[in-house]
Amino acid sequence: MRMNRAWMACGLVWALLGSGAAQAGLTYSFGPDDQSIGRVFSTVAPAGATALATLGDGSAAFNGGLVYSATAGRFFAIANDGGGASSLVAFSAAAPGSFTLNQALSVGGFTGGLALNGSTLYAVSTDGNGFSSLYSMDLTGGSLSLLGTLTGALYAGLAFDADDGFLYGIAADDGGIARSVRRIDLTGGVSDTELFQLGDGSLAFNGGLAYDAATDLFQVIANDALADSRLMRFDLTGAASLTALGGSFGAGYLNAGLALGPDREGGGGGGGGGGGNTVPEPPTPALLLALALAWAAVPRVRR
Questions:
Q1: Which of helix, strand or coil describes residue 132?
Q2: CA 82 to each of CA 105, 120, 255: distance values in angstroms, whole numbers, following the listed order
Q3: Is the CB of residue 53 less than 8 Å from the CB of residue 62?
Q4: d(C-alpha 303, C-alpha 66), whole Å
């Protein structure tokens, strides 16, 4: 009877270990169409990019940012037409080509990225002189509010860090190259501070910025002088943490839009970037305790 209980305990442990496997999410962005207009919604990974749908008729580029809301089950993006007018759109991962125009925004020039905190969207508008302003809106886009101006020219990506409550963006350095990591504090107004600069200036980090709370890492798309795009990641310890996740997965991902979203096959929630494979989680203390109990339940062999 004791042996049966031991085997049952072991079976429970293996069941718990099996349940610890989590579906890794996918990383999404916008790539160029045949006319180099950023409107091809794609998954991107170190091994390559996969086009999912081409949005719109080419009259607007979806270059103003991209986020995924697990609560709404939809992606949100900002599109800009040839005259600089901006619009907020929404679509599902299952049918991205059938997007919904949520709201034509009263202010244009939203090409600096999009971030999400709960049901609040944050977006950066940059004028022709390179001056950026931070706005907030709800998921319908109907409550656009100016929060304040930014000291840096943030035009390359925006993300919300749920762990510390700050916004982070990629701004231009003194030479106009998008590689300055800036922290945006909304306490008592809007203020932004440069933390460090990514790379040596040979790459521009202008393809979007996303924060992965599961790993406490930022993902970013970098582009070289030939517009070849690649995924990289870093943390807030400094420029030395910058790591390339692979080689070029294509060219022309310059659209300040990068988001962690669901696995299209498994339908899971957002996680780290990659190809949507099953990634086992490390054993937790509770699982280790269960293993110990299972081992203790096995009767000792008497000589």
A1: strand
A2: 15, 27, 15
A3: no
A4: 68
pLDDT in tens, 133-171: 999 998 876 778 999 999 888 999 999 999 999 999 999
Give the full edge-to-edge strand order of the sheet including 145-150.
Answer: 114-117, 120-126, 132-138, 145-150
Question: For 211, how many CA atoms within 13 A lie in the half-sphere containing its CB?
Answer: 24
Question: pLDDT digit string (tens) for 206-240?
Answer: 999 999 999 999 999 999 999 999 999 999 999 99
CA dihedral (118, 38, 125, 186) positive or negative: positive
CA-wise closest residue to 157 among 52, 63, 262, 36: 63
Residues 6+ apart with CB under 8 A from 95: 53
CA distance 31 to 230: 12
Residues listed for the chain: 303
- Give 182's strand partners: 169, 194
- Specify whether the CB–CB gap between 239 and 196 falls below 8 A: yes
CB under 8 Å to 151, separation ≥6 — which residues? 191, 192
